[in-house]
Write a structure and sequence with these properties.
This protein is an alpha+beta fold and 698 residues long. It contains 27 helices and 20 strands.
């Protein structure tokens, strides 16, 4: 084959797979291809080249244009270097996979770190206080009928478990505040969306779309400010609370924590505030009124804005009917039924302040902490009806005494109040148990909290004489025993002579002990004390509950010793109860919030007189009321007795009387220790108050 025939020509080999194994030598023998200069230039023997080798060579020039069979005339252009193909990608190995996974982990870690940083910037409080819900509670002071008469608190709240609430009470709040409470996870997206739309349309933040769980989170953990940041925190905390607690646990916290106006937190305190009853006693209409309060407690207060409260009540009842909690007929009937709201505090409750003050002192001494933080229930002995009767009787008696002594009740006296009016006090005890049923320590606790019944110690005058006579009977004297009522002179302190006189200024000669006590003869009492001994009389008085100091000379026969009204009233107990003394009792028991008894009082009872002596004294004191100095206390249809007492210059007027069931003591006087008036004795000023009260008490 002529070598010039293929000079300058280049043949391309089709890159089909069936050429790969065809030897180049066979192609030459068939005349299909001729050796090229390229192969010669490469220094490779054309006869030893196979197709695969050519393909590797020609693959570099696939992009080059195919030269024509006849080259153009002219100078030959220098040949361009062949273009290199792109390097083949290396396959992925384990290093690539490890790097990829490491990058993913790094991104996740970065995301979590950013999320945690965002949470930290929110400064979300811990929710431990929610799961361990222990809020401040009010201390309740209850009367003898277990009605709350006073609450002592930092926050007015009484915890009440769901089991002790009426079934419909929680449902009323769910219907009013969060109809989907049992369905959402603490956050109701639909309510939030609705609130956003309404707020956008209104151009202000009016609706919050808060669920019950969110309200719990806000009340316990957040401030009440209305900001979107607070709402974000509230939503996060609500979701966490819903994950931590059951729905009933959340509802329990809500119904005890929610503020319902008037200083009341929770449904029990609100029931006491608005209806003067326990939550378990609420009617459906009253429940609906309470359930309408959380949105705006002041605006919907039934005590201040009854019409607005009733509009809100109708909304709650309609929601309860729509949700199937009550029938439409029951909702309609509840709305139409009148609601009995708590009336303003009456006179009796207002003046239970003296009693409550005494109870607080005793309870705090027993518990060792302030009642503001104790959260206990104190069951007392007070009878609210008797307390009201006592307050009215004292006020009427004080006014009557002032009118008698001054001739008329001046305008200045009523305007200046406590500075012009005398004061009065009354104590009523249940005979033989010592339980205090009523205690009035003054005309107005708000104006003067000084308690004349327990804190004031004044000379009791002739009110002390029964202890002299009882001591004499214990030492062999009889009611019919005779003693001479005649002038007597006794050497007193500093060598001065003391000559006691009877109130009437006359002497009666030989007289029996019973007659002398009936007419309260001073000289006989002093002589009798001389005969039985001062120490014995003091011992009987002390055993009967009169505290030291007790005068240790003969003036004791005339009551020249300071005694409180509560003490002297309780000291008459042995004359009524067969010689048994029972210490006055104000607190029956104290329970904690869970109902555990922390303290239970039992009357301290002891015998101080022989039963026969007590019976004789009872008859003698009955004669005082029937025909003696206490005649103005007579008139009751039951057996009664008592004794009057008047201190020097009529500064104090006393009367302590009794029936088979109760003992009552009365005192009148000025705080400045001035005279009540020339004729204002115990029989004239104090005994009528006793009778007034006892007539109401029967």
């Amino acid at each position: 084959m002529n070598s010039e025939a293929f000079s300058g020509q280049l043949y391309f080999i089709p890159q089909e797979r069936h050429f790969d194994l065809i030897p180049f030598r066979q192609l030459l023998s068939r005349g299909s291809i001729s050796p090229c200069k390229l192969c010669l230039v490469c220094g490779i023997d054309p006869l030893s080249i196979n197709i695969n080798h050519l393909l590797s060579i020609f693959s570099r020039d696939q992009q080059a244009p195919v030269p024509s069979s006849r080259p153009k005339a002219g100078p030959r252009q220098p040949a361009k270097p062949p273009r290199r193909s792109a390097p083949r990608r290396k396959p992925l190995n384990e290093k690539h996979i490890i790097g990829f996974l490491f990058g993913i982990c790094l991104l996740i870690t970065l995301f979590i770190w950013m999320l945690l940083a965002a949470f930290k910037s929110l400064e979300l409080p811990a929710i431990n206080s929610v799961s361990h819900y222990r809020p401040l509670q009010a201390t309740e002071i209850l009367d003898r009928h277990n009605k709350v008469m006073d609450r002592v608190f930092i926050e007015n709240r009484t915890l009440l478990p769901l089991s002790k609430m009426p079934t419909l009470l929680p449902k009323a709040f769910v219907a009013a505040e969060d109809g989907r409470f049992y369905d959402h996870p603490g956050l109701d997206i639909w309510s939030v969306f609705r609130a956003v739309v309404n707020n956008t349309m209104a151009g202000r933040r009016g609706q919050g779309g808060s669920t019950i769980t969110q309200q719990v989170a806000r009340s316990l953990l957040l401030s009440p400010e209305k900001t979107y940041l607070r709402k974000l925190k509230e939503a996060i905390l609500a979701w966490r609370i819903d994950s931590l607690l059951t729905k009933d646990e959340i509802l329990y916290i809500y119904l005890n924590q929610i503020y319902l106006g008037g200083g009341a937190h929770g449904v029990e305190a609100a029931a006491q505030l608005y209806f003067d009853k326990h939550a378990r006693e609420l009617t459906l209409g009253e429940m609906a009124l309470l359930a309408g309060l959380p949105q705006a407690p002041s605006r919907y207060s039934p005590l201040e804005h009854l019409e607005l409260a009733q509009q809100r009540q109708r909304y709650v009842l309609n929601r309860m009917a729509e949700d199937g909690y009550v029938s439409p007929e029951a909702a309609r009937q509840a709305f139409l039924s009148p609601v009995q709201l708590r009336q303003s505090e009456g006179v009796g409750r207002e003046n239970s302040g003296y009693f409550v003050q005494m109870v607080r002192k005793q309870a705090e001494a027993e518990l060792g902490l302030s009642l503001n933080y104790a959260g206990v229930r104190i069951f007392t002995t007070l009878d609210p009806d008797l307390q009201l009767a006592a307050t009215r009787a004292v006020r009427r008696g004080v006014i009557a005494s002032l009118v008698r002594s001054s001739g008329q009740l001046s305008k200045e006296a009523t305007d200046n109040g406590q500075q012009e009016l005398p004061q009065g006090a009354l104590v009523n005890l249940e005979a033989c148990s010592g339980e205090v049923r009523a205690l009035v320590g003054g005309l107005d606790f708000g104006a003067s909290p000084f308690d004349r019944a327990t804190q004031g110690r004044r000379s009791v005058g002739s009110l002390f004489k029964p202890f002299v006579y009882a001591t004499a009977l214990e030492n062999g004297w009889r009611p019919e025993s005779m003693i001479l009522d005649a002038p007597i002179s006794i050497q007193g302190h500093g060598g001065k002579q003391w000559q006691p006189k009877n109130f009437s200024g006359t002497f009666h000669g030989e007289t029996s002990l019973a007659e002398a006590l009936t007419h309260s003869l001073n000289v006989v009492a002093v002589k009798l004390l001389q005969k039985v001994g001062v120490d014995k009389v003091r011992a009987l008085a002390k055993a009967s509950g009169i505290s030291e100091p007790i005068t240790a000379d003969l003036s004791l026969a005339l009551g020249a010793t300071g005694v409180s009204l509560l003490e002297i009233t309780g000291a008459y107990g042995p004359f009524v109860c067969g010689g048994q003394f029972a210490s006055p009792l104000l607190i029956r028991k104290i329970e904690d919030g869970a109902g555990r008894v922390l303290m239970k009082n039992r009357p301290e009872s002891r015998r101080v007189l022989d039963a026969k002596v007590a019976a004789e004294m009872q008859k003698m004191l009955a004669a005082v009321v029937r025909e003696g100095t206490g005649k103005r206390a007579g008139g009751l249809p039951v057996f009664c007795g008592g004794k009057t007492g008047t201190s020097d210059n009529n500064r104090d007027a006393w009367f302590v009387g009794f029936t088979r069931k109760m003992i009552t003591g009365v005192w009148l006087g000025y705080d400045q220790n001035s005279s009540l008036g020339r004729d204002e004795t115990g029989g004239r000023a104090a005994a009528p108050i006793w009778l007034d009260f006892m007539q109401q008490a029967q």
